[in-house]
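Hey, can you fold this one?
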Amino acid sequence: MKTLKVLILMGSQSDLPVMKKTEAVFDAFGIAYKTMIRSAHRTPEATLQAIQDAESAGCQVFICAAGMAAHLAGVVCSHTIKPVIGVPIASGPLNGNDALLSTVMMPPGMPVATVGINAAKNAGLLAVQILAQHDARLADQLKADRLAQAEAILAED
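Sure. Predicted structure:
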């Protein structure tokens, strides 16, 4: 079995359709990941245990998706020195704008890289870029992916 590279945490089951895009990125790049549902507010002990277990399994990056108050990424960041990427989820009366601000406005010393609302694919690609810093295979795959994107745009001309 491959060493766990990324842990995807989401605040609730309703976030899964968005986060399937992150999983698809990891499947395409051959990255070992695990997806779990953990709530910063409703399951704080289980969230901490998930972080500790993931680090013990070799996890290098955490991706956290949450809507509304969206404190999950910040809570994870407070318990690890590994990179944390936040995915604000469109939900509630503010349609994700509250989640975006909750995720991006972290206090000094507690950075969370934040992608756009529901931008789960970009979260996955950012994690791949982080991992590719020490993995030539991933770096080559990223270069090929960028080239394929450019060729697809030019083919539409």
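The two ends are 44 Å apart (CA to CA). Let me know if you want another pass with a different chain boundary.
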